[in-house]
Amino acid sequence: LLANVNKWSFNVFVLDWFTNGHSFPYLVTHLFHTYNFIRTFKLDALKLYRTIRLVELGYCKTNPYHNSLHAADVVQAIHCNLLEENIYPHMTSLEMMAAILSAACHDLDHPGVNQNFLTSSSHYLVSLYNGVSVLENHHWKGTISILHESQVFQHLPSHQWKRLTYLIEILILATDISKQQEILRKFKVDLTDKHVHSHRHKQTIVQIALKCADICNPCRSWKVSRKWSQLICEEFFRQGDREKDLNLPLTTAYDRTQSTTAKIQTAGFMSFIVEPLFIEWDKFSPSHRSKQMLLNLRCNRVKWAEIEKKENEEVDGSIRRQSNTTLVS
Ligand SMILES: Nc1ncnc2c1ncn2[C@@H]1O[C@@H]2COP(=O)(O)O[C@H]2[C@H]1O
Ligand SMILES: [Zn+2]
To answer: Where does Zn(2+) 1 bind (predicted)?
Structure first.
């Protein structure tokens, strides 16, 4: 399975099944070996493995979506994104390792609810981070804490440690979906020049590579993508349940009695968030893989639209049947 890690058709659910729910440490360890990070940075293999396990344990197992399986999926996706021939040859080992680590830790200790929920339930994290990118700040600081605690990089020269932690910061913070337009604008300007040269230019590219990896689930094959959609929507519905229980303002789309997975999937995430990002990615790095991603996205959108249409027809039918019964009686 791991031999297929470079392929976009890679199915992390299958790896998870064969590893008894531990796809994350298997995948991350495999990539650390493949990229030769252990030798290049003289890492202590035991400390490294402990660090990876700490990160895995830092993900909440009971979240349907934001758990270590999502992190493993994002790691595999950023690995594919950075392999592109106009990117990989320009990346240093440190930059590659920062990208893999950021993907691995980008949702660390995610509570399974969004920032709006944290705000309306007066969660302490909101005041800790002044209401700005609350979750992303939490994931980033948690990552740095684990790296300190595990001492896996304690022997790195200070310039390398500084650059590694700086990259982790800007990469994880860039995953805030509310910053999408801002980052996309920067990407469009920066990437009119297709040659990867300056530090700043590379940073933007890796930020976008991680953003694409984070929201790539609609670009996977239908079988895989549908599973992710069901998992994220179940997490949304659980948030809706909690909003009701706590008498908080109810997010309409998250109300399981009114909404469905198909409704959420066709509501605009694919068309207004995912597609514009992947179109830019494909312009910057046109490849068989980027075309496949866009193709999958468009096919999956059509499939969800068909499912939603059927659901609406069934609802219309049952309303008509109900009103006929009422008229007859
Ligand atoms: N298939 C999907 N449908 C709707 N929203 C999604 C989907 N996949 C990811 N997201 C959202 O995109 C966000 C990206 O950042 P997060 O992983 O923090 O949280 C994610 C979800 O809120
Ligand atoms: Zn994520």
So the answer is: 70, 106-107, 214
Beta strands in the chain, from DSSP E residues, in sequence order: none
| Look-up of token digits 């680590």 | 101
Pocket of ligand 1 (CB under 6 A): 107, 175, 177, 214-215, 217-218, 228-229, 232, 264-265, 269
| pLDDT score of 327 | 60
The Å distance, Cα 231 to ligand 1 centre, comes to 10
**Structural domain for 258, as ranges:** 2-328
- CATH assignment at residue 193: 1.10.1300.10
**pLDDT bucket at 97, cuts 50 / 70 / 90:** very high
How many domains does the chain divide into?
Answer: 1
- The average pLDDT across 217-229 equals 98
Amino acid at 316: D
Q: How confident is the model at residue 195 (pLDDT cuts 50, 70, 90)?
A: low
Q: Give the integer Cα–Cα distance in Å for 150 and 141.
A: 14
Alpha carbon distance 105, 160 (integer Å): 19
ipTM, 2 decimals?
A: 0.98
Cβ burial 9-29 (10 Å sphere, 16+ → b, else e): ebbbeebbeebeebbbbbbbb
Do 121 and 142 contact (CB within 8 A), yes or no? no
Cα 1 to ligand 1 centroid, rounded to whole Å: 26
pTM (two decimals): 0.95
As a whole-number percent, the residues of the chain with pLDDT over 70 amount to 97
